[in-house]
Design a protein that fits this description.
By secondary structure, the chain is α/β, with parallel strands linked by helices. The protein is built from 12 helices and 11 strands. The structure holds pyridoxal-5'-phosphate.
Length: 368
């Protein structure tokens, strides 16, 4: 089965094979792997050793996103969130339910947000100290200009919390050039092509220390993850981690480096997304985004206006042809959501486009 979803993604056999072992989290050999992964991630993030630290957290991306918001935004403090997609909405809910005051900035979900969108809202309300935002909006496929917004925030003396879950490893955001960024978060199962199960925050050590004690949750306190590492070592773990997923992630990082790191992975995903976008247009379907707003991670496509079309039936027909796409959408208009990420090559994507065409014919003919 070819998984064309925005995570957990298709993985390579070597990554899956690394799971086939029993592991004790406190074993010294494993702790060395864990500590090494943390160092490697600071490198991928373009961070500075001694300034930035990797703070892993068990669970899905939402857990580490919530932890980042709780740790770096004080209870009752205002945080601005550019609202232009499903994951921005999720961030807003996480922050609100944690008792942070969310200021929503409504923006269209068909183009990325820029500093020109954000800064007037900050000027209008000087009590807002932090912007929390999604880098690649996985709901639609747009890319928010995290680098430009980050630079503007730095100039304005504001802080940034970045959800880079579906961008990390592919869309560069070099932390060493972004002192305004308290933390970015991502997960093991997206662009680095590991197994799902663990979230990672890459945070400024000084800020994590300055923010100690305000998370209001022990398990979701990234300052405590840092304090524990400083006390007990970078290979130590507070609570039982998904050890097999971590072992597999080390192999996934090897493969990432062997491929050529960020530029190479981005080029492969971009090629996948281009083939998909062109293929969709070739089949007479309409992409949700104009080409200039289309990112390399996810391509959303308008569902055919044909009344015979049904998303579930189509997804099943495509699955019978060996290709799996999301069976739900979260854009304003009804769409289909197709991932360009994971251990997928341009040839795979060409096969997928052909399968989409025949599955579509099948569904529309059968319903006729
Ligand atoms: C996948 C994703 C998340 C986290 O999703 P989980 O299902 O909790 O792992 C958060 N933000 C973005 C932008 C994502 O793509």
């Amino acid at each position: 089965m070819l998984l064309l979803i925005p995570g957990p993604v298709q993985t390579r056999p070597e990554v899956k094979a690394a799971m086939a072992q029993d592991i004790a989290p406190w074993d010294r050999d494993f702790q060395a792997v864990y500590a090494r992964i943390r160092d490697r991630i600071v490198g991928v993030a373009g961070g500075t050793p001694g300034v930035h630290a990797t703070l892993p957290l068990q669970g899905a991306g939402h857990f580490v996103s919530e932890a980042a918001l709780r740790t770096f935004v004080a209870p009752g403090a205002k945080v601005l969130i550019p609202m232009n997609g499903a994951y921005a909405q999720r961030m807003a809910r996480l922050a609100r339910e944690a008792g942070r005051v969310v200021v929503e900035l409504k923006l269209p979900d068909t183009r990325g947000a820029t500093a020109a969108d954000i800064m007037p809202a900050l000027e209008a309300d000087p009590a807002i100290g932090t912007v929390a935002m999604v880098f690649n909006e996985t709901g639609s496929g747009i890319v928010n200009d995290a680098n430009g917004i980050g630079r503007a925030l730095h100039a304005a003396g504001k802080r940034l919390v970045l959800d880079a879950v579906s961008a990390f490893g592919v869309l560069p955001f070099p932390l060493a050039e972004h002192p305004e960024c308290d933390v970015l978060v991502f997960t093991s199962g997206k662009c680095l092509e590991g197994m799902p199960g663990i979230g990672f925050a890459v945070a400024r050590i000084d800020r994590a220390e300055a923010c100690a004690g305000q998370a209001g949750s022990w398990s979701l306190d990234l300052s405590d993850v840092l304090a524990h590492a400083k006390r007990s070592g970078w290979g130590s773990i507070r609570f039982t981690p998904p050890v097999q997923a971590i072992a597999a992630f080390d192999v996934a990082l090897d493969l990432y480096e062997a491929e050529g790191g960020q530029p190479a992975r981005r080029a492969r995903y971009q090629a996948n997304a281009d083939i998909l976008y062109d293929g969709i247009v070739g089949l007479g379907l309409t992409p949700y985004l104009a080409r200039e707003h289309q990112g390399p991670v996810i391509v959303t496509v308008h569902q055919p206006a044909d009344p015979r079309f049904d998303l579930m039936t189509f997804v099943d027909a495509l699955k019978r042809r060996g290709v799996l796409i999301s069976n739900f959408y979260n854009t304003a208009a009804p769409t289909m959501r197709i991932g360009a990420i994971g251990a997928i090559t341009p040839d795979d994507m060409r096969r997928a486009v052909a399968a989409i065409g025949t599955a579509l014919d099948d569904v529309l003919a059968k319903a006729a």
